[in-house]
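WARN retry 2 of 3 for item q-0093 after timeout on previous attempt; input resubmitted unchanged.
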Amino acid sequence: MFIEQYKLERNPFAPNVARPTFASHSMRYAFAKLDELIHRQIYCLFLSGPAGVGKTSLVRQRLRGLHDVTVSWINSGADSREAMLAQLVTELGPGAVEASPAEIGRILDVFLRHQAAKGHHSLVVADAVEQFSGAALREIETLAQLRLRGRPMVSIVMMTRNEDLLANMLTQYDTGPLGRAVH
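OK item q-0093 returned
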């Protein structure tokens, strides 16, 4: 699996820019990589840049109208592992379940495994990662490691304003099994 990260420089949705024309090379490149993620050529994508640059708008625009992908959009409101698992099992899984976090994790794993076996694509978008708790970040990492026949079962887009956080996260994967990081 390749982890790729792209720093966005300017907001392509500026008032004087026709949509969906992208004003910067970085935005066009990030849009192309998002397409690769949707078509399962890459499985994890990091988008970073200052507030207002258009990270969320880019992803929302690209995911709008997709019918063959189930998307869970996680923001800072899911600040605990329990809240994140509840949201994931509701949006990606069979629906709301009352159980312990460990049981919900197992239910989600089995459901995603079943969906992946049928060829269904699940996507998690983690927005404002700099505000997530350590437990929530570990849960995203657990999702990224789920495999069926050696292939990831879930694609992940992570967005952040904090370049330092991202640099710290990526250094652990520079030479590891998850591949390369591009900035």
